[in-house]
Amino acid sequence: MEKEESRYSKEAERIVKEKRIVQLNPLDGGPSIFIFLAREKGTHRDHLVTYNSCDCEFFLFSTILGSGKPCIHMEAYRLASEKEDFLRISARSDDFKQILTEVFAYGKSLKLRKLISSRYD
User: How far apart are alpha carbons 25 and 78 in whole angstroms?
Assistant: First the structure.
């Protein structure tokens, strides 16, 4: 069990270091949301995440219905929260809605990735 927890901790540290926990702030007011940003390649999805919840399957089947252990997305969010180390992105209302729609409909948000990449251009 210690090896699994250690692997999870290292993975969470790597995720935070890669700035893959995004704090999305609406420009016109309202609450921020936090998104776990999946890697570009592969079949993994972006996830909406908080300290106590995540929209991933692991959260539903293992955290709620099983062991109660948090998913890697929650672990990374908690670590980023402790360090106050989020990638902060502000978005207009229509972009905010588009990002949420893409996360739920397609699993990844192209709009969010465009907003992030435009910060570094």
Answer: 18
Single-letter code of the amino acid located at 92:
R
Give, rounded to a whole angstrom, the gap between the first and last alpha carbons of the chain: 43
Report how far residue 103's alpha carbon sits from residue 3's, in angstroms, rounded to the nearest whole number. 32
Tens of pLDDT, residue by residue over 20-76, are 999 999 998 899 999 999 987 777 899 999 999 999 988 888 877 777 888 999 999
Query: In DSSP terms, which residues pair with 88 in a beta bridge?
Result: 23
Token readout for 5 is 């927890």
The model's pTM: 0.87
Retrieve residue 17's tokens: 């270091």
